[in-house]
Amino acid sequence: MGLSIGEKIIKAHLVEGEMVAGSEIALVIDQTLTQDATGTMAFLEFEAMGLDRVKTELSVAYVDHNMLQEGFENADDHLFLQSMSKKYGIYFSRPGNGICHQVHLERFGIPGKTLLGSDSHTPTGGGLGMLAIGAGGLDVAVAMAGGPYHLTMPRLIKVELKGRLRPFVSAKDIALKLLQILTVKGGVGALIEWGGEGVRTLTVPERATITNMGAETGATSSLFPSDQRTLEFLTAQGRAEDYRPLEADPDAVYDQILEIDLDQLVPLIACPHSPDRVVPVSEVAGTRVDQVCIGSCTNSSLADLTKVAALLKDKQIHPGVSLSISPGSRQVLTMLAESGDLQTLLAAGARLLENACGPCIGMGFAPNTDGVSLRTFNRNFQGRCGTQSAGVYLVSPETAAAAALRGVITDPRDLGVMPAIRLPEAFTLDDSQILTPADREEAKTVKIIRGPNIGSFPVSEALPDQLELPVLIKTGDDVTTDQIMPAGAKVLPYRSNIAKLADFCFETTDPGFAGRARQAGGGIILGGHNYGQGSSREHAALVPRYLGVRAVIAKSFARIHAANLINAGILPLTFENPDDYQKLDQGDWVTLNNLHEGLASGRINLSLGKTSISLLCGLTDRQQAIIRAGGLLELMKEKENSTHE
Ligand code: MIC
Ligand code: SF4
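^ thats the input. predicted complex w/ alpha-methylisocitric acid below
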């Protein structure tokens, strides 16, 4: 039987388990990436492992999220990351060099390799044919230390692309179409592989837009083949030697096959407040627009911004619209300046922001009260932009440009003829803002710079056999990690300071949560389906754990968050009978009985007065050991102590 692209990469990196969907496997990780918002914690965890250098082929640390620097906190974090990188053999992409996923694609990604990143949009690398997976910081730290990455072998979804995109319809519309089909839950447990004749028409940055947003379906990762288009991109980046072809075997077998006809695809838009609320742009055309933001790891490539410049050339944006442009990298910004397109964008009235995540994560450029913001980004969860009452719509660069010109949501096809754009054959190369680590000798003398904002990793304790705790909160379906642990300009500076961060847990939806947890000395969380979707931030597990949360009971979990809960020593439990969710309420004191036996048998009994509820916890032996120890770092310490005795 033939193999798919993903199966080929997995087979070449498999160190534990079998390639059977649903079972646990472990993979060797070739490359890692971290960013500043999750990286400080990942680096503290790596440091706690006591190694003198990373063991990967390549590890890169990026600074792209926390760049407002309203106080000393962010700058402290940057210096900490820079000194850690220098000492431990990690390349350091300086603030201003660009968004991690865009820069990694341009300068480091290699087809056929594995990449583990402490950011949920790491699958952007799948556009180059690399198996790129998002994970919590601790899993990335383990990979930096040379340990394998454990995950559930995904089932395979193949998406066949037919035909060719029409003018004004672009890769973002393909990503939105898939979200319309799969929803924010449909990709959970799956690897999405793209194939069919339409694939050949898409460039690597276009493919990367699609694999980037595969994260919104909950998928483990998304992958394109590595072909002539890949070679063209790598050659233009001066990296032709990194090319290797990679295709699925013709007789590869998939669990599900979908088809998208590019000829029939129209401009699409995701309405507030979920990336899967997708409709044709024409359905909401005419809606007033206050703000348009172009950028983010989804749509900030040179081609994206060149298209926008072509559409805005010799025109002025609508007076009611504020337009921001955040180029994905310094390479993109430099080339926009060289081509004159930067001047075109500024002359049209655009506001130029840094080459960073910026408004995507609520770091500035928050919309007005009740504002309507059209963004080329990937997430539109309520409040993520910094304004609770604003409505964020997700669109392609073409649709964003049309709205910027007209002041209302506009089908970009109404703009007439799409101007032809010309891209240079070679990218402008300048890696001066990527710092090379010290060699082994010099590394010994490098001192780690640790400002007062750098906290320490919280300690946890082993799991008792019985827990009696209150239900601290009862949530609905699709709770995001942005709700559990909000980001934005006020909170992000404390990503290296768990004690301080704890004040903000569930703050936007339930400001009393942290107080209740502190008062009760801990508790459990009750969730609906897809609990913990979205970001990979392990803070959404570390902070509840710090507040004494020992278990989350939900109807189902998002992949990365479930792994983060286990690593933090929090038990993820599901209902044997989902209707039992109705029987529990906030404030109930519940008892979880015979936990150690239950962990092993996969079934735990919860009692609430006379009511007894059966909960499931299908954990592997490895995961059970982590939970018993109180967390992955605790387990590693236990193991180390027993070898030293
Ligand atoms: C996001 O898009 O939510 C982030 C910010 O990039 C996160 C990481 C984080 O919370 O730091 C992600 O997607 O993993
Ligand atoms: Fe940054 Fe936004 Fe991409 Fe997350 S989704 S990495 S915040 S640009």
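The domain at 268-411 is CATH 3.30.499.10 (Aconitase; domain 3).
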